[in-house]
Every structure is written in structure tokens, then in C-alpha cells.
Design a protein that fits this description.
This protein is α/β, with parallel strands linked by helices. The protein has a domain of about 110 residues. Helix content is about 45%, strand content about 10%. The protein contains 13 helices and seven strands. A five-stranded mixed beta sheet has the order 5-4-3-6-7, sandwiched between helices. Strands 1-2 form a two-stranded antiparallel sheet. Helix 8 packs across helix 10, helix 8 runs antiparallel to helix 12 and helix 11 packs antiparallel against helix 12. It starts with a helix and ends in a 12-residue tail after the last helix. The C terminus is likely disordered.
């Protein structure tokens, strides 16, 4: 009996040891599996880093600019000297170039003036060389040529006459003097016409043509306009237009919806050389289709104190990317941009092959963004021309977009628990999670846009310019 009991105890001990051994092995396998999974994620992260780096170096990017494609924002301030007298006009000569024979393809010419030139035979050629009878018109051919007339500079001399009433002067010893009015210009004491001033500013800030190139441009047209003179004009114009800027800012801040963005600027130091310190251009925009207002605010820092000060009296929806500096703005509803969220997932899947795409969890996040954009596109197509477009969009968003956003939030909450924080997906999820809750604000008003792209487009002229060599 005791022998049987000993055998049973021995078997139980063996079973316990076996179970313990199996349990330990299972734990070891689980740990190894976890380690392998982490190594795979780490490898995927490193591959993504390499691919992303290669894409930035060798691939095309709409957001990347060449270092030589910078428009120095404060060039006018650096070259301006308002104490210098205006140049005197001696003689302006201009040589007209012949238009090129190689005209481009016909595009939309509907808004251009059309000059019709008919080509007929001379009177002595309108008879048949064989029988000497008169030739008869049997048809015509038409060919349109897009002509270019080069810009022209000329001087307008305005002579104003003064008039006096001699009768009044005889009767009261006081002449009644009246003077004819001359055209007024923005810069009263300058020779710059409004048209020329507008052209200089447009070339500088819209077409990124530095003033030293404008100096050469005007020189080719036969007139000497120094960089200093051009700089003085721009600074003086800025002072004259400041009340208009303040009025636009006042009206912007009275609205209930503002988009904001900021970008780095290349500027010149006191010696005229490229400054090593980064400056910033802040943009504030009301994306009203009928009456948009765009305000630029130049600052020396990217601190959140800049938008806080500028928007101190604003109360409404402020739409931005995820930059934390905007959190300092008070009394606003912070609405986030879906385009920046989508971009994080796109950066992951753009480097994946077809097979990897099937198993990528990032595709799910990207597809949520794509579906939300598709809804917006369809709403624009169906209701865009209606007067109650915003009201229709508001209702449709609650029906179609709201459930998708809730699903998107659930997806992010679930995925972020298992994602490696340093991985590309982990970073995308970490960026997205705190933004989605506030992104839902766009469901509250049909006039709110799904992204901040309108503001980004408005700020690009400051970072995308023409290639030029500094002298």
C-alpha cells in the first residue's frame, strides 16, 4: 500500500515538474516572441527611416524648397535710406524687341483684346496672270498669334495751373485763387506712380524677384532705379498702407473662424548678409469664399506668445496644425487640421510595396482620412452651388462624417496600445490621438473647413521663390 502511495506521490511530483517546465518554456517562448516582434518593429522603423531619408534626398516633395529658392523678406529694410533724395529724370530711352516667332500653344484667350488683320493682294496683283481677268475671293484662312508688347516706362509731367479772380482782387484786395487738381499718388513726394509702385511690390513679394534683380530689370528698360530707391518706395508704401492693414486685422478678429500657420524666413542682417538667426512669418486667414481676409505678421520668434498677442481679442474657432504654440491663445476653440494627420500616415505607406500595404496598420488610419475627404468632395459636388450650402454640409457631416470620426478615434486608441512608440506608426498615432477630439469641432458649423490647406497655400509665396545667386 505504501509502495503504491509513493508511486502516486512520485507521479504527482513529476507531473508538477512537467507542468512547471512547460509553463517556464511557454513563458520563454512568449518572451522570445515578444522580443522578435519588437526587433521586427525596430527593423521596420529603421527601414522606414532610411526610405524616408532617401525619399527626402532623391524624391520630389512639394513641401521642400531649395536653399537658393529663398526670398529675403526684409531686403527693403536693409537697403532703405529715406534721407536720400529721389533720382532726377534726365532722359528715358527704350528699345523695343521684336516678338518671338515661337509662340506657345493656344490656351484661354477669351479675355484678351483681338485685333484682326486682313491680308489681301495688292490691286495690281488681283488679276489672273494667264487671262488677265479679275480674281475672285473663294475663301479665307485664319491663324491666331498671341502677341507680347514689352513693358514701357515713360515720364508724365503734370503741370497744374492756378487761377485768380481779378475782379475780387480789385474790390476786396483779396484774390480768389483756385488751383487745378493734379492726380494724387500714394507716395506724395515721390516720383513713383501708383502703377509702378504696385509693379515693384508685386515683383518682390508675389514673384520673389529681389530688388537687385529689379534694378537690372529696370536698367534693361533704359532707366536707372537703384536698389536703395526701390527699397525706399517699399518702406514708404508700407507706412502709407498701415491703416489699411490695421482695418483688415480688426475685421479679421471680429469673425468667428480663423486659420493660422507659420513658416521660417531667411532674412538679412545689419551688414546685408544672410542672418544665422531664424525669423518667422505668421499668417492669419479668414477662409470666407466671398470676403477672405489674409494678414501676415512678421516676428523674430516662433513662441506661442506671438499668436496669443495677435489673437488677444479674437473669440471663435482657430484652425491650425498640431504645433503646441497655439495652445497659449485664450478664449478660442482649437480646431485641428486633418491634412496634417493624414500626412503622418501617408509618410508611412508611401514607402511600402503592394504586399506590405496589405498588412500595414497605417493604411487603416490613412483610409479613415481618405473617406472623410471623399465625403467633403461629394458634398461640394452636390450642394456647393446652393445658397444654403453650409447648412446642408452641417447636416450631412453629422450623418456621415461623425460615425467615421468616432471609428477613427477607436482605431487610434486600440492601435496605440500595441504600437512601438519609436516606430513610424507609433509616432503617427501619438500625433493623432490628442488632436482627434478637437478635430470634431468641425462638425459644429458647416462653414468650418476640414483642413488648414487654405492657410498653407497663402503662406507658400514666402518660402518658394526663384533661383538666384546672392551678390
Amino acid at each position: 500500500m505504501s509502495t503504491n502511495m509513493n508511486n502516486i506521490n512520485l507521479e504527482n511530483q513529476l507531473d508538477e515538474k512537467t507542468e512547471e517546465l512547460i509553463s517556464n518554456m511557454e513563458k520563454q517562448i512568449e518572451a522570445k516572441d515578444k522580443e522578435i516582434a519588437n526587433l521586427k518593429n525596430e527593423l521596420a522603423y529603421l527601414k522606414h527611416q532610411v526610405l524616408n531619408k532617401n525619399r527626402k534626398i532623391f524624391g520630389s516633395s512639394s513641401e521642400q524648397t531649395n536653399s537658393m529658392q529663398i526670398s529675403f523678406f526684409d531686403e527693403a529694410e536693409s537697403n532703405s535710406n529715406l534721407k536720400v533724395e529721389e533720382p532726377t529724370v534726365e532722359e528715358i530711352t527704350y528699345k523695343r524687341n521684336k516678338p518671338s516667332k515661337n509662340v506657345g500653344k493656344k490656351d484661354n484667350l477669351a479675355n484678351l483684346e483681338k485685333i484682326v488683320i486682313e491680308h489681301k493682294l495688292d490691286a495690281n496683283e488681283q488679276s489672273c496672270k494667264e487671262c488677265k481677268n479679275d480674281l475672285v475671293v473663294i475663301g479665307t484662312k485664319s491663324k491666331e498669334i498671341l502677341k507680347y508688347v514689352p513693358a514701357e516706362l515713360y515720364v508724365e509731367e503734370h503741370i497744374t495751373y492756378s487761377y485768380a479772380c481779378k475782379k475780387c482782387e480789385e474790390n476786396s484786395n483779396k484774390a480768389n485763387i483756385i488751383q487745378a487738381k493734379a492726380p494724387e499718388t500714394l507716395l506724395h513726394k515721390s516720383m513713383a506712380s501708383n502703377e509702378l509702385l504696385s509693379h515693384v511690390i508685386n515683383l518682390k513679394y508675389m514673384h520673389a524677384m529681389p530688388l537687385y534683380r529689379q534694378e537690372k530689370y529696370f536698367n534693361m528698360m533704359g532707366v536707372n532705379l537703384s536698389r536703395q530707391t526701390l527699397s525706399n518706395w517699399i518702406i514708404s508704401a508700407a507706412r502709407e498702407l498701415e491703416p489699411l492693414y490695421n482695418l483688415m486685422k480688426e475685421q479679421l478678429l471680429e469673425r468667428n473662424y480663423v486659420q493660422a500657420d507659420e513658416t521660417v524666413l531667411k532674412v538679412l542682417d545689419d551688414k546685408g548678409k544672410e542672418s544665422k538667426k531664424q525669423k518667422y512669418m505668421w499668417l492669419y486667414k479668414s477662409p470666407d469664399e466671398n470676403h477672405p481676409i489674409i494678414i501676415y505678421d512678421y516676428q523674430k520668434t516662433r513662441s506661442g506668445s506671438c499668436p496669443k498677442k495677435f489673437l488677444s481679442v479674437f473669440s471663435g474657432y482657430l484652425q491650425t496644425d498640431g504645433y503646441a504654440g497655439y495652445n497659449k491663445v485664450e478664449n478660442i476653440k482649437r480646431l485641428y487640421c486633418l491634412a496634417h494627420i493624414r500626412r503622418k500616415f501617408h509618410e508611412i505607406i508611401v514607402n511600402l510595396d503592394e504586399e506590405s500595404l496589405k498588412s500595414s496598420r497605417a493604411v487603416i488610419g490613412f483610409n479613415y482620412c481618405a473617406k472623410l475627404y471623399e465625403i467633403e468632395k461629394e458634398l461640394k459636388k452636390q450642394h456647393g452651388k446652393k445658397q444654403n450650402y453650409y447648412e446642408e454640409r452641417y447636416k450631412a457631416r453629422l450623418e456621415k462624417s461623425k460615425p467615421l470620426i468616432e471609428e477613427f478615434i477607436s482605431y487610434v486608441d486600440k492601435e496605440i496600445e500595441n504600437a512601438v512608440p519609436r516606430s513610424a506608426l507609433g509616432k503617427a498615432l501619438a500625433y493623432t490621438k490628442p488632436l482627434l477630439e478637437n478635430f470634431k469641432f468641425f462638425l459644429e458649423d458647416g462653414s468650418l473647413e476640414i483642413d488648414n490647406n487654405s492657410a498653407e497655400r497663402s503662406i507658400k509665396p514666402f518660402v518658394i521663390g526663384r533661383n538666384y545667386v546672392l551678390n
